[in-house]
UniProtKB/TrEMBL annotation:
It comes from Rhodobacter viridis. One of its GO terms (biological process) is Mo-molybdopterin cofactor biosynthetic process. Its cofactor is Mg(2+). NCBIfam families: Glp_gephyrin (NF045515). Residues 183-316 form the MoaB/Mog domain. This is Molybdopterin molybdenumtransferase. InterPro entries: MoaB/Mog-like_dom_sf, MoaB/Mog_dom, MoCF_biosynth_CS, MoeA-like, MoeA_C_domain_IV, MoeA_C_domain_IV_sf, MoeA_linker/N, MoeA_linker/N_sf. Pathway: Cofactor biosynthesis; molybdopterin biosynthesis. Keywords: Magnesium, Metal-binding, Molybdenum, Molybdenum cofactor biosynthesis, Transferase. It comes from the Bacteria. It is an enzyme of class 2 (transferase). One of its GO terms (cellular component) is cytosol.
Amino acid sequence: MTAQDHSSPMLDIAAARALATSLVDPITETEDLPLAAALGRFCAETLHSTLALPRRARAAMDGFALRLSDLRDGQGLPIAGTIAAGAEAPDLPAGACLRIFTGALVPAGADAVLPVEDCTEEGATLRLSRRPEPGENIRAPGSEQPAGGVLLRAHARIAPQHVGLLAANGITRLRVLRRPRVGVFSTGDELDAQSPDSLPDSNRPMLLALAAAAGAEVTDLGLLPDDLPAVTARLADLRGQDLILTSGAVSMGGRDHLRPALIAAGGRIDGWRVAIKPGKPILFGELGPAAITGLPGNPFSAFTGFHLFAAAQLATLTGQIPPLLFPLEARAGFDWSRKPGRGEVFPVRLAHGEIDGMPVLQRLGAGVSATLFPLAEAEGLAFVPAETSRVGFGARLRWMPFVHRGV
Ligand SMILES: Nc1nc2c(c(=O)[nH]1)N[C@H]1C(S)=C(S)[C@@H](COP(=O)(O)OP(=O)(O)OC[C@H]3O[C@@H](n4cnc5c(N)ncnc54)[C@H](O)[C@@H]3O)O[C@H]1N2
Ligand code: MOO
């Protein structure tokens, strides 16, 4: 595709996602890390448990370990002692019971632990208010985790619960993928602090933050000016990124230099423009070994473009299948008439209450892509298909909450 090609048809969302992800390859380089440094990283290999847990029978409640065959109706049991936490348990003496605490080793010979709530102590004698079931409140060896079970699959993102599970299995180091390297440019002389009517650059810090939250090692590549030779030279010099994100300069205007600069710098344009609102002017390309995704300049369009396409590229880089878009169902807590023609993404938050057992979403903002203000209170993004002309109160909606997957 050339930089002048304004007539090529717009991609639909699925085709654009497929194209975007086809431009990146899963990372294969790995590094070895201590468990404490692995949060948010992607596991390089499937980890299996080497132990069945618990290794030995342990009490599930504070109470008394006893042998069911010692119980006689109406008779108590002498309390022969206490099993201290962390201590080796003595054998259970014949005809007696032992005081035991949650997690302590069950003494050999005991086949139930009766909780303190179900007995009373009369001096050194235990009175039982009921007969326990065989095995009651005993965590049997291997009952919680099999040996050889999967602890963490290759490419899973390491979340706090994985840190706990691996620690419980005595794993203190693990092999993770190197982070995807993402460089972010913004474009436009109006963002230069020296210009007379300068605007704050919101997209670059936001895209750096989005990529970092998705697990990338991010590099701030700065601001590209509205000058074709200068943009070309900056792109031609670029090394060491897996994915380059830009915002702005990708539409039709005379200052929209990204496409010609990418070609002049030796790159390729693989796709341009997606049938979606907002975010139509978006570019998918390559620059040397890196993919380059040119997001629109309007800040909300850059934000949605990241969620729809760049997030899928990052998932692919880390060996994952990109998650489904808008996987959850909810009901509209608003009535909205719109112009059909393009699928539309808009910010939402959860309203109080439910309709037919489903969460209710409130639409935020007025569909203006130049502002991030509606995101102040947003909890996710919802989607309506191209043909929809009205979303009535209570209508079904698809949406995706903002979550940093797996962490
Ligand atoms: N004739 C046409 N004009 C426009 C079209 C079109 O199809 N034909 N598309 C419109 C749409 S939709 C969008 S979105 C914008 C996107 O254009 P660009 O990607 O080329 O973005 P810019 O023109 O560079 O900037 C647009 C807007 O966003 C502001 N901006 C840019 N970068 C940042 C940043 N890092 N932080 C904050 N704000 C930023 C910029 O100042 C402009 O206001 O084009 C429409 N026009
Ligand atoms: O599609 Mo633009 O991205 O409307 O704002």
